[in-house]
């Protein structure tokens, strides 16, 4: 990890909050309009929507970073990579859960992470923010501390304590998890837990950090989908890896768990 003073860490956390404020304004201005939200499809086969709110929110965050920390890199979903010289890269997903945003459901969020920079892309997350503008909740984590601010006030975050797998609550976004083999692995795990729920996008990761659920399991993720959740969950006491127990900051197959015990139990059923 890069050496940073407490003041530098506080400044970076504050800057992440500023980015969240800017993205809130852009996304809320376009959420739940009369007649619904239009979107463009980024795929020639399948459906990967992008809205004007996605683009506007990322653009305003990038502009603020260029002003405040031009030496840092940026890795964003909508506008790609800007290389930096500081050894740090901001990883931005302006609306994680665009389908939910289009549908008017408050499960989407703004994801902001600051990562080390590796030769071939963003490295380990140092701090992260999961922001849900409509509800007004912001989950922040980094440098050993995690907090939530929202309608119920400001408080520390802590993940759930260990429990048996058959008492666990499991989330994923789509019932069709990844490839056929990945879907079969998820189904094996789902049969072992008490409750499986779907469709919460990044908000499910926030619920792990907040001690409300035990597991999130997904496949086919990109770095901007998972960098911020990793930082928040790990700062709250949880663990995030790929399905083989390796670092997950590059995306792909991801499991987020409230504690090492439930993580190990779930991995046994995901192994193919």
Describe this structure in words.
The chain is of the alpha+beta class and 272 residues long. It has two domains: 6-156, Fructose-1,6-Bisphosphatase, Chain A, domain 1 (2-Layer Sandwich); 165-270, D-Maltodextrin-Binding Protein, domain 2 (3-Layer(aba) Sandwich), CATH 3.40.190. It is 32% helix and 30% strand. It contains seven helices and 15 strands. The strands form three sheets. An eight-stranded mixed β-sheet has the order 4-3-5-6-7-8-9-10, sandwiched between helices. A five-stranded mixed β-sheet has the order 12-11-13-15-14, sandwiched between helices. The protein has a two-stranded antiparallel sheet with strand order 1-2. β7 and β8 form a beta hairpin. α1 (6-28) packs antiparallel against α2 (52-68) and α5 (203-209) packs parallel to α6. Pathway: Amino-acid biosynthesis; L-histidine biosynthesis; L-histidine from 5-phospho-alpha-D-ribose 1-diphosphate: step 8/9. Mg(2+) 1 binds at residues 77, 95-96, 225. This is Histidinol-phosphatase.
């Amino acid at each position: 990890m890069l050496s940073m003073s407490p003041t530098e860490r506080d400044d970076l956390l504050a800057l992440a909050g500023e980015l969240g404020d800017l993205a809130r304004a852009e996304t809320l201005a376009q959420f739940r309009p009369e007649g619904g939200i239009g979107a463009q499809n980024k795929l020639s086969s399948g459906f990967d929507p992008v809205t004007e709110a996605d683009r506007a929110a990322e653009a305003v965050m990038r502009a603020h970073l260029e002003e405040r920390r031009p030496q840092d890199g940026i890795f964003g979903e909508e506008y790609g990579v800007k290389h930096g010289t500081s050894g740090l890269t901001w990883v931005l997903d302006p609306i994680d859960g665009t389908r939910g945003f289009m549908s008017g459901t408050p499960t989407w969020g703004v994801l902001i992470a600051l990562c080390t920079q590796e030769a071939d892309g963003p490295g380990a997350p140092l701090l992260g923010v999961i922001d849900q503008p409509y509800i007004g909740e912001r989950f922040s984590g980094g440098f050993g501390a995690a907090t939530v601010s929202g309608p119920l006030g400001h408080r520390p975050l802590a993940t759930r304590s260990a429990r048996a797998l058959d008492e666990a609550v499991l989330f994923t976004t789509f019932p069709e998890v990844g490839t056929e083999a990945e879907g079969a692995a998820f189904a094996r795990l789902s049969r072992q837990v008490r409750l499986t729920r779907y469709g919460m996008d990044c908000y499910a990761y926030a619920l792990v950090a907040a001690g409300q659920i035990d597991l999130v399991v997904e496949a086919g993720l990109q770095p901007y989908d998972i960098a911020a959740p990793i930082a928040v969950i790990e700062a709250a006491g949880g663990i995030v890896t790929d399905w083989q127990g390796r670092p997950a900051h590059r995306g792909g197959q991801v499991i987020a768990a409230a504690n090492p015990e439930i993580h190990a139990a779930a991995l046994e059923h995901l192994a193919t």
